[in-house]
Amino acid sequence: MDTKPKRRPVAENGDAGEELVNATLIGNGDDLGPIVRHAFEMGRPEALLHQLRAVVKKKEVEIEELCKTHYEEFILAVDELRGVLVDAEELKGELSSDNFKLQEVGSALLIKLEELLESYSIKKNVTESIKMSNFCVLVLDLCVKCNNHISEGQFYPALKTLDLIEKNHLQNIPVKALRMVIEKTVPVIRLHIEKKVRSQFNEWLVHIRSSGKNIGQTAIGHAASARQRDDEMLECQRKAEEQSVFGLGDFAYMLDVEEIDEDSVLKFDLIPLYRAYHIHTCLGIQEQFREYYYKNRVLQLSSDLQISSAQPFVESYQTFLAQIAGYFIVEDRVLRTAGGLLSADQVKTMWEIAISKMTSVLEEQFSHMDSATHLLLVKDYVTLLGSTLRQFGYEVGPLLEVLDRSRDKYYELLLEECRQQIVNIIASDTYEQMILKKDTDYENNVLAFNLQTSNIMPAFPYIAPFSSMVPDACRIIRSFIKGSVDYLSHGVHSNVYDVVKKYLDKILSDVLNESILNTISSGTIGVSQAMQIAANISVLERSCDFFLRYAAQLCGMPARSVERPQASLNAKVTLRASRDVAYNSLLSLVNSKLDEFMTLTESINWNSEEIAQNGNENMNELIYYLDSIMSTAQQILPLDALFKVGGRALDHISNSIVAAFLSDSVKRFNANAVMGIDNDLKMLESFADEKFHSTGLSEIYKEGSFRGFLIQARQLINLLLSSQPDDFINPVTREKNYNALDCKKVASIYEKFKDSPDGIFGSLSSRNAKQSARKKSMDILKKRLKDFN
After folding, report:
1. In this predicted structure, which of 7-21, 178-192, 405-419, 606-620 has the lowest mean pLDDT?
2. Which residues contact 327 (CB under 8 A, 6 or more apart)?
3. Whether the predicted model's global pTM rises above the 0.85 cut
4. Which of 735, 764, 626 lies closest to 686, judged by CA?
């Protein structure tokens, strides 16, 4: 009992303290929330409630005390409050009335407001829907526009539309289903465009390949025209220079350069290629397209480089080369205008492939060719191809080197063809002088090769000094020169003239001259043929100058450069030597024929009792033969050749006369036989003098004559008929009168010589003093000649 009272004050004191604190907090108007929360957290809400009640009681006591203190004032305040309450009631009534009225009016407005708000909501939704619909319509319009572009083949606008849809609108499409459809469709459309463009590009590849031949042929044709213009200009320049050198007047010439835009001339359509490349660039796969283009063009090139075995190369080479030219002309323009579609290295690689294949094909085909004309045609087209492609920057040196390596093959074929032609014209030649009946014949066969001996047009019909083989051979040689220049022109050689001159010498010396020599040595020709061949060679030798000038003209060299002596052809010397061979053959044939007439040992009575008055009949025929030979020679041979032929024939006759005296068949002869031969010799000398003057040789060889070729026979006859033959022993006399005689031959002849003829009156004749003196002189001569020998 006692313990409880003891604890109570403590508790009460504690509660009093808390009450005081709580009262202070309440009086200060502080927040009691933390105290309440703390009480509940401590699990003592009853204590707090007890404390609050205590505070209430305390405050009530304080209020009561305050009221007691201010009772009257409180009464007044209550009265005022009651008045205020009445007013408040009145005000409340009024407010209630006003509220009722307001409610009556506001309910309708609220309904309108709700309707308005609902309308605003609907409007907002409709506006949003319209906006969404418009956006979808815009996107769908773009889709329709893209489809229209695709259907019309306008792929670039279609791609730009796709990019616009994808970048600016796709993610903003409010309708998910539409957005998903478009997202799936855009790649499909891009792939479709790529396939369509690739298909169009493939069609273009086929088209451009089929057009390659025409492109190449057109370009090569322009190159040929340009070459012709250049050649004509060079020829005009050469003529002007020559006329200026020869003082024929002042001439001005200018080079008319016609600028030709190859791109405007060579029209081919690259728009599909540009379009395809641009579309692939827009698709972001330009590198893939570059590889695709390069791969397909290389495949086409490989196909173009294949040679058809079904057609001879000489029939297909133009198509083959034109196709390649067209191919690389296209590639050059693609390189320059396609904006990086091709690289220079790729074009270079393709060209190296082509040049390697072309060189191997040409070398192989050239090795199998058997016609110089075919080889020349191919070579000419190859040089035009080179000239064409060089304008586009391609290195064509290897092609020209192939042509240079085939030069020996070309000349081998050309020389063989010319050899066959020359052999044929020589074989078919009649070795008769050509008869030209009109001026055109003269121009074509004489003037055309500068074979005329006079600038005056002759009267017709004109008998030329040569046979038909000369102009025919000249045509062949002229054709050979033209073929040589054509082959060597526009190649790697700059000294075309020197090469042409070299081979011109070769055909003249090794072909024409050899063929003529073969004919001479064949043994089937007679005197007239040999003489005509000699005359032909003389004309051909003279024509060498024309050939040289013609070669210089075709090579574009001035004529004065070939007029120097050191510039002449070596073939002139060769032909001159062959002419001498022909003369020797002619003289051999003439001498053989003369030997038939000079049968003096058989036709002469070496011990005749009387002197032959009418001469030897064989001698008359011999002179007639000589006259015919020399008359013909006068018409067709140069005067120096005529002098040579006539002189050698007379020399042979002279030697034959001497040989007749030395013949073993002539044992003895007398003076009558010598006098008869003297008469014959006088006839020959008279004929020789007449021919020497009538042929005009006397004007050239003023110190010589035909008679001089008979000097050995004349001196022998003079010695045999001399009254003092022992004068031969005198060196001075011998050198003056008998210098052509050989002492041994004279000794042998005098051993056979009997001064008087045998017969009944032979002894009586010897009694004549004159004859005795002559006989004595002869005996002295014989004795001295024996001692000499």
Report:
1. 7-21
2. 209, 212, 216, 297, 300, 301, 304, 354
3. no
4. 626
